[in-house]
Structures are given as structure tokens and as C-alpha cells.
Fold this sequence. Notes:
By secondary structure, this protein is mainly alpha-helical. About 55% of the residues lie in helices and about 10% in strands. Strand 1 (about 70-80) and strand 2 form a beta hairpin. It is globular, with a radius of gyration of 18 Å.
Amino acid sequence: MRKAKPKKRYILPDPKFQDTLVTKFVNYLMVDGKKSIAYDIFYKAIALVETRTGENGLETWRKALNNIMPSVEVKSRRVGGATFQVPLEVRPERKVSLGIKWMISFARKRGEKTMTERLAGEIIAGSKGEGAAIKKKDDTHRMAEANKAFSHFRF
Length: 155
């Protein structure tokens, strides 16, 4: 067990939109430390979203991220030899990180040719309330709803 809680690292805002959430998203998107490529993919995806929908790309991305973020999840809890799936509220930081992870992972699994197109497609689908990441959130919420009876085992 560690002695003290680690200090919270604050990240700098991105160069184009001056938004720390964008930087956080790009950090999750980045592979092998290639941050400039990750920024390039993100900015091109936002531009592609703007051309496809005719709306503000950053706002569409924010809306998609908010639609994907879960509010409840289940956690395994052992009580007297039995394991129960206990529904819990998701902390705000975890909510954001789960939403980002799901959006990127399901964008990577899409069928389009480039990552820019995949990410743009997932952003558009997420903002409309459809797509694989939204399905994952709904499944998580459904699991929590089904195990509501075990909510008294919260810790």
C-alpha cells in the first residue's frame, strides 16, 4: 500500500481550442508517444464532423462525449463467499475517462479506412445517441439496473 496519495497532475490546454479536455482526449488517442499525430487526427476528425453535419465540430464532440459518459456502473463485491455485482455512482473524473476510452476504442474498431474517418464517424454517432460506445453505456446502465437489489452492499 502506498504512503500518500499521488499529486494530481494538471494538463495544459491544447493549442487550437485552449481546452484541457481536448488535451486529455488526445493523450488517450496517442500511440507510442506520437502526440503531434494524435492532435492531427483529432483536429481533422473535428473538421470532418463539421463538413458532414454542418454544426460546430467541437460542440458535437462534447455532446457525443456527454452522451457516452456513464453515470452508474457495477463493481464486484464479495460478501460471505458469494460475489455480488453492486451498482455504484461513477466519480466525475472516472466518468470522463471512461467516456474517452470507450469513444476511442470503439472508433478504432470501426470499418472506415483512416482513424480520422473512424473517429469522426463515432463522434457523429455518439452525438445522435447511437453507435457502439452508446450501446456500451446502455449495457452498463442496464447491468446496474438489474443488480439494484444489491445496492445495500455498497462500501
